[in-house]
Amino acid sequence: MIGRRIPRIDGPIKATGEAKYTTDIYLPDMLVAKMLRSPLPHAKILNIDISKAKKIPGVKAIITGRDAWDIRHGFIETPRYPADQYCLANDRVRYIGEEIACVAAVDEDTAYEAIDAIKVTYEELPAVFDIFEAIKPDAPDIHEFRLPDLIEPFKNVGGRCANSFGDMEAAFKKAYLIREDRFETQLRTHCYLEPQATVAYYDVNGKLNVWTSSMGVFRKRMHLSKILHMPLSKIRIHKSWVGGAFGGKIDLFSHEFCTSLLSIKTGKPVKYVAERDEIFSYFRHGQPMVIDLKTLVAKDGTILGQIVRCYNNCGAYRGSGVVCIFLCWGFIILPYRIPTLDYIGYSIYTNNPVRAPQKGHGAPQVRFAVESQLDIIAEELGIDPIEIRLKNARQKGDILPNGDTIKNAGLIECIEEIEKKTDFRKKYSKNLKEVKQYKNNTRFRRGIGIGVSSYFTGTLIYPHNSAAIIKFNDDGTVQCYTGALDIGQGAETILAQIIAEELSIDIKDIEIIAGDTDNTPVDIGSWISGLTYVTGNAVKKASEDARKQLLSSAAIYLNVHMDSLDMRDRIIFVKDNPERSITFSKVLENHIRDHKGDPIIGKGFFRGLKDAEHGPSLKNAKGAWSDSYAFDAQVAEVEVDMHTGKIKVIKATTAHDCGFPINPLLVEGQIDGQVSMAAGQALSEEIIMEKGITLNPSFLEYKLPIATEMVENDYIDIITEEYKKGHHFHTKEVGEGYVSGILAAIANAVYNATGVRAKRLPIRIINNLS
Amino acid sequence: MQLPHFKYHAPRSINTLNALIEKMKGQAIIMAGGTELIPRMKMRLIQPENLISILKIKELEHIKIKKDKKIEIGATVRIDNLVNFFKENRPFNAIFQAANMVGSQQIRNMATIGGNILQNTRCKYYNRTLQWQNIMPPCHKRGGNICYAVKNSKRCFAVYQGDMAAPLIVLNGKGEFLFDKNFIQKPLEDIFTGNGAMPFNVGKGVLIKFILPQPEDGLISTYKKYRIRDGMDFPIAGVAVAIKIKNKKIDDIKICLIGVSSAPVVIKDIKDFISEKKLTDKLIHEISEIVYNQAHPVENTDGDINKRRYMIKQMTFEAIKELIDGYDK
Questions:
Q1: Min distance A696 CA to chain B CA atoms (Å)
Q2: How many domains in chain B?
Q3: Would residue B142 count as lying in a domain?
Q4: Do both B92 and B49 map to the same domain?
Q5: How far is B233 from chain A (nearest CA, A)?
Q6: Which residues, numbered 203 to 232 in chain B, qualify as contacts with chain A under a Cβ-Cβ cut-off of 8 Å?
Q7: What's the pLDDT at A161?
Q8: What would the pLDDT profile of A462-493 be if each residue is shown by its tens digit?
Q9: Which residues contact A469 (CB under 8 A, 6 or more apart)?
Q10: In 3D, which of B5, B132, B43 has the Cα closest to residue A35?
Q11: pLDDT value at position A110?
């Protein structure tokens, strides 16, 4: 079952509409919650008057910052980076759309009527939206927080990550070419089709039942427990299917707190579903970044050193901005050997909505910058883009500056194979020559470009580990209990395949019971690119445990040594004499009879980075980061209409070293999704803001590529890891690494076609039209 | 987002429609496919007490070729039906082109020609939910006196983006309106005010049908649309061109722009300019330049205004070139 192209097991219920998403949850007497949001980007709240709103018939409860304890939350909460955001604004609002009050009413109209009746008195404060304005000495203070070790005279620095190594002076002396560029990436958003939604029901036993569109139920429970002052045992996050997240649903959101508190106050179920324009305007987006990149190279293209400054606009609260600037460091040191580095990343507060992880979380930004600049350097040195990448590619056995070992790296094979398959060198030099000599006067010009990337495979962050339980029905069919949440990536299918493999049974004989904090064991969640690795290994170990118990029991009944047994389709048999066999069902029946009722339950657990106490330092990037790293090389072929400036990605090819692909169909699905996201980022997507106001808060105006614009994809498997029974799963990351190389490849291909070098996304060639 | 409460009426004949309108004393809103009206109602940009659907009036849903070769298009003919009807119709190719690029297939199935023509003007500061609008004092179109798109402007610049208006205007289409039981025909280009806040000057008239004159010999037309994506999007610049060729010369030309102003822009002085001139690329460039100079988009929809203006020029050139090059084939 491992390595097979099995269609998703959740396909039928999703295709027929049977799958229940959070918005599909209807409970008797359920109230509707709506949010009052700040109309100002920065202001003191002088007074909130809810007296009139409270009197409206049908309004059941209204909560404001006063009802919420004086407790803040954050994407990360550490001594260096304490939580900085209230669930409901307390005395101050810092961005347009910040939550001020939440109403629970009998229906939507009543809730909105109450929202309109709440009167808030503000004292407006000066606001700042641009990062370089925000760091100036005369900029308004968005927070009182000061980083104790900040040496720069910058204001509003929410986080700083610095790391350097190697001898920069020597690198400068040796350098043949020094190239310095500034690259900027735009504000984008996730575009999950299922809106943010939560149903909370505080029942008569004092248990808070929550259904919420998320990326990990145990992380949500941890956040809610803290913010609501409730024991973990009193909160249950139920499973509901999730219609996409892409990083945008991992944080705690105000509406999750508000629906919970409103249910506690009213004793009734409360539902909140975000409107699409709220999601576009006020919810968490990805991270727009300015990257100053200076690269020192030898004459042959070997990178001698890099000086990098990343400026991240993290919005009004810290969000995941400080994680993003650590990760940017990681994506600088990963795919290429960087012997000398001077890196500082800043996460800067502005009066904009808060930022969350978004697929790649720093990698698209960094790869766009580095891969673009590498092509510029290669051209200046007169070497081709393939050669400069091969020269600097990381290889097996490399030790990263933080001490992590690259156990397996297929990057060189990825680059070599993709060159062959796409005929890269030939096409690239032909196009470049034509552009340079102005020989190509045709309206539609073709270009080819390459980008490479590398991504980590999970790290240590709460809840750190996953566990799984395998139990059997009387007929020998299997139920697996896992806390994993399938957010559309196919987690349940992958886990079922692992069980099917280990127990040699049909996938139809497996039921996955998942994503429920009360009824399933702990799980790391569908994020940080770690689910298949961490949960996959937990499920594998649970299956192995069950298999071992079944075999050892069967050995007694068949009167042979367990090593001589094998199993298939719920039957255990003697390898040399398959006629001698016993069904799972019979083994279980006998086992219960002979072992005081023990029904055989398999248990498994897994935690990555077994020798590390915690994840890497966000301050200086020291410490273990991940067990393994995936690599890829991606080639984009574009066509540019020189009359209209329209850029079309004709084809994308991805050569990937993603470890052992448990389900190649799902790997390809991930690549397809990521390539289309990259095309959107490269060509059309951007949240357009004016003084904190979002001007394109709809799918009509936010230019997500449509179905007819999907890119044709080709794949090359470079498999450096193998699957071995009895060993850990050597899978590597596949969920977000492929959004970055191809982004850079598109930008490089546009240059190859037109001679226009994009340093800002999305790419525009308006000034260069023929 | 839910719809506000309203009373729904669906008369089956023009007579009942008339009676209903009379009864409502002009307080009703007419709806056809609803693809433009329903989202505006959800956003509470319009909250009619009474909604009259005209979809059940059978006589409004047909396209007819009359004995005098005029074409009559009922107001509730779906855009998708137009696509099929005008496919491979050389003189009226502009209608096919425009219809085929309206919204998405789902929109074309629902939306009607009448609704497309009478769609409200749009602006990135206007087509928003009430909650979103709370962050900004009302603009001209919302009853205030500010324009966010054109700073310090005393009027509304909301942009008219009905794809179908441009081809119908260049093909000299007329609209037939029902005014207090009387049927009145108006050239389509005369139904627009040019004011983004109140884009139509048809009062309480109900659009019943369109009439296209019999195509003259040598008539050819096309439509070009600029949008960011290959589908879904409104025109952020659109050009319809109709040309009458006679003796290998342009005998008549009419050009209409869409998506660059609060009303369709019928290009002035163009016929006189080309009179008796030889058809060269240079002449087409000069025509494109004239068109370009009459396009004045403002920052109120997708895309960059310079690019939108540039595209007007580019598309005009391509449209005329294609028409002329294709004429003899």
A1: 7
A2: 2
A3: no
A4: no
A5: 7
A6: 226, 228-232
A7: 98
A8: 999 999 999 999 999 999 999 999 999 999 99
A9: A480, A481, A482, A520, A521, A542, A601, A602, A603, A604
A10: B132
A11: 97
Same domain, residue pair A512 and A592: yes
**B151 in reach of chain A (CB within 8 A):** no
Q: What is the mean pLDDT of chain A?
A: 96
CATH code, domain with A110: 3.90.1170.50
Mean of the pLDDT values across residues A418-441?
90
Q: Give the span between the Cα atoms of B80 and B100, in whole angstroms.
A: 7
Question: Are A522 and A595 contained in the same domain?
Answer: yes
Do A483 and A593 belong to one domain? Answer: yes
Residues A59 and A102 occupy one common structural domain: yes
Mean per-residue pLDDT, A149-161 = 96
With an 8 Å Cβ cutoff, is B125 touching chain A? yes
Please tell me if residue A278 touches chain B, with a CB cutoff of 8 Å.
yes
Amino acid at A54: K
CB contact under 8 A, B228 and A703: yes
Do residues A230 and A88 both lie within one domain? yes
Q: What whole-number distance in Å separates Cα of residue A658 and Cα of residue A717?
A: 8
Sort out which chain B residues have CB atoms less than 8 A from A693's CB and list them.
Answer: 135-136
What kind and span of H or E run contains A185? strand A177-185
The tokens describing B299, both together, are 């920052």
Query: Same structural domain for residues B4 and B110?
Result: no
pLDDT in tens, A346-358: 999 999 999 999 9
Burial degree of A643 (CB within 10 A; 0-12, 13-18, 19+): middle
Q: Does B36 touch chain A (CB under 8 A)?
A: no
Query: Does residue A586 share a domain with residue A496?
Result: yes
Pairs of CB atoms within 8 A across A/B: 61
- Of A29, A22, A494, nearest to A237 by C-alpha is A22
Q: Rounded mean pLDDT of B98-112?
A: 97
Residues spanned by the domain of B26: 1-54
Q: Are residues B48 and B118 in the same domain?
A: no
CATH number of the domain within which B114 lies: 3.30.390.50
**Is residue A4 very low, low, confident or very high in pLDDT (cuts 50, 70, 90)?**
very high
For residue A131, being part of any structural domain is answered with no
Task: Identify the CATH number of the domain in which residue A596 sits.
Answer: 3.30.365.10
Q: Do B226 and A644 touch (CB under 8 A)?
A: yes
Q: Are residues A309 and A421 in the same domain?
A: yes
CA gap B247, A383 in Å, rounded: 59
What ipTM was estimated for this complex? 0.95
CA torsion sign for A82, A465, A87, B134 is positive
pLDDT of A770 reads 54
B7 and B118 in a common domain: no
User: Residue A498 belongs to what domain range?
Assistant: 465-607
Are B175 and B319 found together in one domain?
yes
Segments in A437-579 forming alpha helices (H): 491-503, 531-558
| pLDDT tens, residue by residue, B132-178 | 888 899 999 999 999 999 999 999 999 999 999 999 999 999 999 99
Is the pLDDT at B312 greater than 60, yes or no?
yes
A150 within some domain: no
Rounded mean pLDDT, A30-38: 98
Report if residue A578 sits inside a domain.
yes
Is B43:B29 a contact under the CB 8 Å cutoff? no
Q: How confident is the model at residue B131 (pLDDT cuts 50, 70, 90)?
A: confident
Our separate counts of H helices and E strands in chain A read: 18, 30
What total number of domains does chain A contain? Answer: 3
Q: Which residues of B touch A709 (CB under 8 A)?
A: 229-230
Question: How is residue A12 annotated by DSSP?
Answer: H
Question: Does B66 fall in a domain?
Answer: no
Q: Positive or negative, the Cα torsion across A202, A207, A210, A215?
A: positive
Query: Please, what is the Cα angle at B27 between B24 and B33, to 5 degrees?
Result: 100
Same domain, A202 and A341: no
Same domain, B32 and B178: no
> What are A315-363's pLDDT values in tens digits?
999 999 999 999 999 999 999 999 999 999 999 999 999 999 999 999 9
- Cα separation, A75 vs A159, whole angstroms: 13
